[in-house]
Amino acid sequence: MSLKTSNDAEFSEDIRQSELTLVDFTAAWCPPCKRLNPLLEELGQELGERVTILKVDVDASPHIAARFGVMSMPTVILLKDGEPVERLVGLRPKETYRSLIAKYSAVAARQAVGHQS
C-alpha cells in the first residue's frame, strides 16, 4: 500500500478505511518530512492492510492540522477507530513507527478474539 495524500475534504472518509490509520502531518518545505516519506512508504509496503497511512500537507489542509493541534513537522499521529491514540513529533527511526503500529495491531487482535468468546 502506498501513502495516500488526504485533505480537509477527504480526511473524515479516509480515516474510516481501516481500524488503524497513521497520519503524517507534513509540509513541502520541511527537510525531516522529506526523509520520513520513504520510511513510511516502506512501512506501507511491509504492513499492507494492517494500517492506512495518510499524508496531510499542513499548508494545504490547515483545518485538519488545527483539529489535531499540529505545531511542528513532522508530526505523526496514530488513530484507532478515528481517535488519536499516539503522537510522535519529529523524525524517528522506522522501527519506532513499526513498533507503534504493532502495539495497536496486537491490541485490536486481542479485542477481536475477546469479542468472539
Automatic annotation (TrEMBL):
Record-linked CDD domains: TRX_family
Thioredoxin domain: residues covered: 1-106
Annotated positions for site Contributes to redox potential value: 31-32
A Pfam family this chain is assigned to: Thioredoxin
Disulfide bond residue pairs: 30-33
GO cellular component: cytosol
Keyword terms, alphabetized: Disulfide bond, Electron transport, Redox-active center, Transport
PROSITE patterns: THIOREDOXIN_1 (PS00194), THIOREDOXIN_2 (PS51352)
Residues with site note (Deprotonates C-terminal active site Cys): 24
GO MF: protein-disulfide reductase activity
InterPro entries in alphabetical order: Thioredoxin (IPR005746), Thioredoxin-like_sf (IPR036249), Thioredoxin_CS (IPR017937), Thioredoxin_domain (IPR013766)
Species per Swiss-Prot/TrEMBL record: Paenibacillus tianmuensis
GO biological process entries: cell redox homeostasis
Family membership noted in the UniProt record: Belongs to the thioredoxin family.
The protein, known as: Thioredoxin
Active site: 30 (nucleophile), 33 (nucleophile)
